[in-house]
What does this fold into?
Amino acid sequence: MSGSKLPLKFAIIAAVIVLAAWYVYPPGENINLGLDLRGGAHILMQVDTDSALNYEMELTQSRIGQALKDEGITYDAIVPKGTSGLELRGADPTREEDIRELLQDYVGGWDLSNLGNASYSMVMPTSVRNYITTAAIETTLSTLRNRVDGLGVREPIIQKQGLQGDRILIQLPGVEDISQVKDILQDPAVLEWKEVTYPPGTVDTGTWLAPQSMEGLLAVFGGTLPADTEVFEQVILSEDGTVTTRLFWPLKRVSVVVGNDLKNARRGNDQWGDANISFELSQDAGRRFGVATKENVGRKMAIVLGGTRSKEVISAPVIRSQIFDQGVIEGGFSIQDAENLALKLRSGSLPTQVDIIEERTVGPSLGLDSIKAGVMAALIGFIGVLIFMVIYYRFSGINAVVALTLNLLLVLGMMAAIGATLTLPGIAGLVLVVGMAVDSNVLIFERIREELRLGKTVRSAVDQGFGRAFLTIIDCNITTLVAAFFLFSYGTGPVKGFAVTLTIGLAASLFTAVFVSRQLFELVLGRGHRVEKLSI
Amino acid sequence: MFQILKQTNIDFMSRRKVYLAFSGLLMIISLAMLGVKWLNMGIEFTGGTEMQVKYVASPDLSDIRTALKGAGLGNPVVTTIGDTDLHEVYIRLGVKAEDGKEGDLTSRVMGALHTTADKANHDSGMVNLNETNQEALQLKLRAAPLLTDDEADALAASISVYRRENAVIGSYEELDGLAGMTPGAMEYLRNQMFIGQFALRSQSFIGPAIGAELLEKAMWAVLGSLAGVLLYIGIRFQFQWGVAALAALFHDTVITLGLFSLFNQQMSLPVVAAFLTLIGYSVNDTVVVFDRIRENLRLRGNQKLVDVVNKSLNQTLSRTVITSGSTWFVVVGLWILGGEALRPFAFVLTIGVIVGTYSSICIASPVLVMWREAILRKKVGGGARNS
It folds into this structure.
């Protein structure tokens, strides 16, 4: 190792130290603490996608049955086949062409086949299944997101989890009273149709759009809203899911139609081939809807989806004519948009079931205790090891002290840099990293001692010590990383934090024990003069 | 040079059959232990509700049990956590209550634990200082006639900080010195609020499905990491070395599990993490020895395999002792000082470091030697010759 490269290597080390310190400082703000340390609620919810699929199957079954009756086509039965198929049996053999057309109309996207014997098989293809499943999850996710936003918790986390992505993880730092939160999250979503309260003097009711701010809304009403009116927001998203516009709709408190009144909603086409959504109401609701729509022809009616606490306008179509129990929503929809809205209407009328499958709450006092105890244990372990190294290896021990301290700094720095979360097992991981990082130093130092015993010069003992121990250190680290990898892929929350700490710590120890420690030796040995004795 | 071990020359290998017999016995005992008692599985694996409650005064566990039984919550586990003078109680329930209702039972437990006096206070609209949150406290204090809104907010904050630091408020006297406390405010607190007998410190609910899933995942993770180790050592060394290392790991895992079961420690996710760390740690030790054996084999000349292994074990012995010693020191520190939550985790590593160090010397190397000898004997047609 030539002395001339030494300054460069020290510059690298210095740069790493500065960078790590810059990321870490101040540690209280830059290291993310897990909920087990800072206190808060962790809730894992399971979206019951099967219920959405079953609902879709049942709906399709009854829709086709109804359509066949309407067309005057006789049949014996429509029965479920497996979990994702239907079979039409004993259909009028003389109407084969009509049946084919009808099925094409209703379940065109499905795999259809004529089984002979006047029987037809309809199987929901995986693509449709996936679509319904995804839509059910997305709808639930956005509903939950709205509700969590409404809680006013700082830095909440809401994300999909699980192999199928059908679990939703919600983390609410600082929340202690979980029972209230659970009520809000599990509140079933309901669909409602509400009349719009127009500002006084509105002429063009068909094209009127709600203002984009609460102030704007109050302004058009001259400061106060009528007593029978409530404000609901509509969030318009761009294609990448970012909020582009918020509209503030003034709607009548009393709803015209609510969720269970809706019997069905599906995507259809108008006579020009544009996508629309046709819906069907129960008879009773149809009568009410008839009265309300008669009064509101040419005006808008808003469709509101949400629980009892947070509701959102999902669409506000114009009423073109009086509607009883069957209607169509038009609006220049793309096929996808129409499909989505139909799905929202359906899932709103029967909300996808969401169950809490895991929840943990840690009070802030417990988190604080854990931090105190964990940090104390870590510090004692760390300082104990440092003292031992100095006593045992003398001058070279100081070298190890520098390497270990730098190791700790690097681990914290990297955790801050990648935004990793420090959990209670993670603190234990830090402790273990100290124990394991010291192993690399010990391996090298013991090897140097051995070489010295064999009568080698200090120079060549150090070279050989580092050289021979290097492969062993790599092997050791990789085998530990194998375990850490499985830990990471298996772990949830806190355990993942442990795996992350361990992995980062091992990587950092390679740098500190092998590279940094070596340069520190070079500092002593590389000055050109012969070193006769090494304090090790 | 300060040395714990002078240059040693211990003949480890001559007693290899003794080690294997000893370890074999320990493993049989451990497996029997597991067979009879299995493990004390935490709710993460069984599903259920658990919570940690801190009482103001020393709690009567049998009263708590009676109250919970009376509320139709079956026969929950009720124990103290940590020092008894901390008044902390751990309560654990199954997934279902007696009425068959499934789910989080925390609120029902809380309801059952409240004393009649506390319930009466609560019903008369008073606020429980040990259960309310900062916002609710703020609202209540703002209603106090003597306090301005700012004063109310400041007092609510300092009471919350006090509770955050002490977990539970024991008496009004404790609150006396708090920032923002005035005689008037104290009067108001005494009249409008009450000090409940306990505070909830943590609570978890795990559904039965996820419990079974986590257990399965944990087993796969352990098996996967064992297979990964076998694969890596198989590639870096040879297959038989990998098997020898695996034998040592299996040994460590089984014996530590046996002791874990014997001491009735509770299995949880972090404990599984500790087992995986133990696997990583123990194989680490084995690899150091194996590396040295391989290195010495290249230079061995006409030395016997047993002698090469012995020499390698002696050469690496001081490193093994120092590293294991320092790691053991930190995990014992974690065990003693790390708090209740980390104790089972530290338990596994405290035992595991010892067993793992022992196994890399007394299991992995003997298995390797005996296997190679067996292969050699086969090759020379049953002749009893050491390599």
